[in-house]
Write a structure and sequence with these properties.
Blueprint (H helix, E strand, L loop, with lengths): L2 H4 L12 H6 L2 H10 L8 H6 L5 H9 L3 H8 L3 H8 L6 H16 L22 H8 L5 H12 L4 H10 L12
Length: 181
Amino acid sequence: MSAAATTKSLADSHDVQDWRRFDAMTDEQRHKAALADPDAQPWTEEDLATAKRRPRAFVIRRAMKLDLATFAELAGVAVETLKAWEAGMDPDAASRQRLDEIANAAALRRRGQRGPQKSPLKQVISIRFDADVLEYFRATGPGWQSRMNDAMRKAAGLDPLALQADDARGSSRPAPSPGHD
């Protein structure tokens, strides 16, 4: 028997989706078609209320990408206890509090993310700039906000290097020079 006779071609497969018809639809047509699908109906309030929820210990452990043993050690419980929690048994109040602490700590800093600054050196504000000014700085690529800060320091008559040197030593911001409020 030849390979051609035993191999199903991609065009013959029922798993292949023809996206041309979908791409030709408007958003309204897509929404209407989705609602017409009996297997993909939106959830009702009753569905949401009666849905089986994943145990909190499982959700936290999976979000942190930890194995059972590591998470059990972090939670201060036996692996068998953690397995029972993940099977649906409710942890006691102290254990629930510990799970909340673990979840909050994980939300503050995920693997590979920068943690909070020990003493913030810059302030978060909301300010409006002309579109062409923002476009100019953004076009300079990554680090554009630092370059914009440097330009503001220069316009204010502040030494752009003074803050960096002081920050490295851990001292406070230099006082503005006279005439610059």
